[in-house]
TrEMBL record:
Gene3D superfamilies in the cross-refs: 2.40.50.40
Protein known as: Chromo domain-containing protein
Short name of one Pfam family: Chromo
SUPFAM superfamilies in the cross-refs: Chromo domain-like (SSF54160)
Location of the Chromo domain: 14-51
Length: 101
């Protein structure tokens, strides 16, 4: 097996080959999405969990569509495309008859 290329900091450079799984972990009271990455030229046992936002920043051209679950607020619209974001109507709060004045 050939040795991987090295970065400027002398760390090996690996290319992502496949997303194997997706999960969220709780860090400092916030849920952080992570992806399990199978790296090219490394065996399956060397797959690593990577924070999704770091992975997207480092590998912007890697296609994650249909490989990870929806991440974000879960809105039902696309604000960038000009579609309205659907909001749930406010719930009416009605006091029981015995508490009404």
């Amino acid at each position: 097996m050939p040795l991987p290329s090295l970065s400027d900091d002398a760390y090996p450079l690996y290319a992502p080959e496949e997303v194997l799984d997706f999960h969220r972990i709780r860090i400092n009271h916030h849920w952080q999405p992570q992806v399990l990455i199978k790296w090219a030229t490394l065996p399956l046992e060397e797959a690593t969990w990577e924070p999704l936002h770091h992975f997207r920043k480092q590998f912007p051209s890697f296609d994650l569509e249909d490989k990870v679950q929806l991440v974000g607020d879960g809105s039902d619209g696309n604000a960038e495309a000009g579609q309205p974001i659907l909001q749930r109507p406010k719930r009416a709060i009605i006091k029981p008859a015995r508490f009404r004045e």
